[in-house]
Amino acid sequence: xxxxxxxxxxxxxxxxxxxxxxxxxxxxxxxxxxxxxxxxxxxxxxxxxxxxxxxxxxxxxxxxxxxxxxxxxxxxxxxxxxxxxxxxxxxxxxxxxxxxxxxxxxxxxxxxxxxxxxxxxxxxxxxxxxxxxxxxxxxxxxxxxxxxxxxxxxxxxxxxxxxxxxxxxxxxxx
Length: 174
Prior knowledge:
By secondary structure, the protein is α/β, with parallel strands linked by helices. The protein has helices at 17-31, 48-59, 75-85, 132-149, 165-172; strands at 3-10, 34-41, 64-68, 90-93, 114-116, 161-164.
């Protein structure tokens, strides 16, 4: 059976982490998906690690793996450290800050090595509650990404990505 690793980097996500884990668990159980959730915790000051540990005791060590890091080391190294724990055939990178909604991101039925999600659907679900400054920064970042890369993406700043594990490993380690 195909297994999915959901990689969730966290930093000060104590309040949102239980909801993200619940959504992932419910979605996977409803669809009969074999999954593990790898939480990469970047030494949060708000108790996120303790929340992750409590969630692990609730959902089990077979579904929740924790990588506790000693400092805030950034996303790329979080991906690398999470990949070290991942055992899935596919990797899904998911924000813990609720800017990506698990139910909105349907499992991709494709042979592609990478699928990139967007927060900019017709209802703009992923950017609800954003300040004007956050929206402006995101628009500028996307305009720069479009100008530099010209890849026909709607959302260069989205962290919701779905990878074949071999491709993700190759991408991260080169």
